[in-house]
Amino acid sequence: MTDLTLSRRQPSVWWGAMIICGTVVGAGMFTLPIVMAGAWFGWALLLLLVTWGAMLLSGFLFMRTSLHYPQGSGYDTLTKDLLGRSWATLNGLSILFVLGILTYAYISASGPVYQHSLNLAGLPLSTAGAKITLTLCVAAVVWLGTTGVSRLMTFCVLAKILLLILLFGGLMTQVSLPSLISAAPVGESYWPYALGVLPFCLASFGYHGNITGLVSYYDGNKRHITQALVLGTLMSLALYLFWVTSTMGNLPRAAFPAIVQQGGDIAALMAALSNHLHVSALALMMSIFSHFAVIASFLGVTAGLFDFIADRLGWGNSPAARLKTACLTFLPPLMASLFWPHGFVAAIGFAGLFATLWAVFIPAMLAWKAQQRFAGMPRSTLPIVLVMIFGVLNIVAWLLSWVGWLPTFGGA
Questions:
Q1: How far apart, in whole angstroms, are the C-alpha atoms of residue 238 and residue 234?
Q2: What proportion of the chain, given as a percentage, has pLDDT over 90?
Q3: Pick from 20, 59, 126, 266: CA 20 to 30 A from residue 182's CA?
Q4: Where are the bilayer-spanning segments (predicted)?
Q5: What domains can you pick out in the chain, each with its CATH number?
């Protein structure tokens, strides 16, 4: 996303890393230990590390390809030029579906949270009013450009890290190592649950919609873009590892089926952890953390959606053009959230499948075609093959889960 006013000074790598980390780490991180409980700690760490490596690699492939195009060229431009109009259309529909569903989900989920907080602050807003207010605030930041997004994202990410340390620091000091490395119960193995976790891990490292914005933000500086991607994804990985260790190290594996039966949401998990922290302090910090987690991911996802729509329509970067793009980015999900506040539940299960296409397969295919076209493009087949294998594994895992051929743990 290009700023309305460009600075001659190259932005710090830190700002780009904050955009990536803020986009990746959101309220969805609370589901990780729940869906990973069957596979347990060892497999959870391995799957997170493998997914981080594969998704970072696919990000590099897309970045390398995009550097051979004019700044501002996004997924649609690259896909149409290298893979053809049919692939561009399919890829565009998948991006719009995933980012649109996520935007819709964040608006729907955050409305009641912010309504409660605003009412406590003396602002009597309805849930619809809170959704509209929050959406307008986020839209204004995204309309202003990458600098505004990165500054606010930095504040949110730093607040999330601080709150995580305060909230779960006590739990880390009480982690039970024997529980983390315990062998599977007699007659049961951990590994059959591992494959089903893979799509959740992929969805937890989605940032590719922000890469084209970073290319413009850093004026095509490959070193700075690379450093931002590495730093941002590493910070995300560290937060995930911290969270999974602190939860699994304090809650035995046998406790997770009950959490799943209670809905498998944040409230159920926090209730199980309540005996490890002071309940009132936990509730307060949990509420504050949820605000920062939602707003950071909301910003990151909508910034990526904004970039894609701007590239697809080619309206330019003037304030008026950006306003039209912002309207298309935010109004449809907002209206859908107002009229169908719970409708995203059925559709969001398919979001991971479509994300595999545009965040894994398409970057690998673009890199393959770019290597054949551009003389200066490094020719390396191994990264492309590894990313494609990772994508195939995710498709297989999703299909096997969909038909019920993979085991579930506690009904997860």
A1: 6
A2: 24
A3: 266
A4: 12-34, 40-62, 82-107, 127-145, 152-173, 193-218, 225-243, 282-309, 346-368, 380-405
A5: 13-402 (1.20.1740.10)
User: Could you count the other beta carbons within 10 Å of the beta carbon of residue 123?
Assistant: 13
Half-sphere exposure of 133 (CA within 13 A, CB side): 16
Structure tokens at 26: 């959101």
Q: CA 78, 331, 353: angle at the middle one, nearest 5? A: 50
Place of tokens 């003396």: 122
The 3-state secondary structure of 54-114 reads HHHHHHHHHHHHHCCCCCCCCHHHHHHHHHCHHHHHHHHHHHHHHHHHHHHHHHHHHHHHH
Q: What is the largest CA-CA distance in the chain?
A: 65
Cα four-point dihedral sign 209, 214, 219, 221 = negative
- Whether pLDDT at 1 is above 50: no
Specify the amino acid at residue 399: L
Please report which helix (H) or strand (E) contains residue 151, including its range.
Answer: helix 146-173
CA distance linking residue 387 with residue 336, whole number of Å:
34
Q: Smallest Cα–Cα separation from 306: which of 15, 153, 102?
A: 102
Q: Give 2-16 pLDDT, tens digit per residue.
A: 444 444 466 789 888
Structure tokens at 108: 């729907």
Closest CA to 260 of 37, 402, 411: 411
- Asked whether the beta carbons of 249 and 33 are under 8 A apart, the reply is no
The whole-number pLDDT of residue 228 equals 95
CA neighbor of 214 nearest in space, from 231, 230, 226, 202: 226
| Distance separating alpha carbons of residues 51 and 200, to the nearest angstrom | 10
Question: Which amino acid is residue 152, in one-letter code?
Answer: L
Residue range 186-220, pLDDT digits in tens: 778 888 899 988 888 888 888 887 898 898 889 88
Look-up: residue for tokens 């509420």? Answer: 287
With a CB cutoff of 8 Å and minimum separation 6, the contacts of 302 are: 99, 103, 138, 139, 142, 329, 330
Cα–Cα distance, 18 to 99 (Å, whole number): 19
Q: What residues have CB less than 8 Å from 289, skipping those under 6 apart? A: 160, 163, 164, 167
CA distances from 72 to 76, 99, 243 (A): 11, 19, 36
